[in-house]
Amino acid sequence: MDNTGLFANALFSMLLKKGIPTTFPAQCQAVKSMLEYDCTGLIGSLTDFAVSSATVDFSIETNNDTFNDICRQWLETINI
What we know:
The chain is mainly α. The protein has 4 helices and no strands.
């Protein structure tokens, strides 16, 4: 397992020890709490990496114009 996998595993282990809240506000509070008590600095780094990874520009290109239009529309609306 590479270092990123080890860090992610440690993060998930911390989450699972406390249990993952089911509501969004409770999830936000759990993340806030983990960041406040992160003496290693790993959680902040992993969170920054996850946010950066999620905001990468992405496109799908094929030889079919109709399928390109469908994919473009899907990418524009996937996170709405």
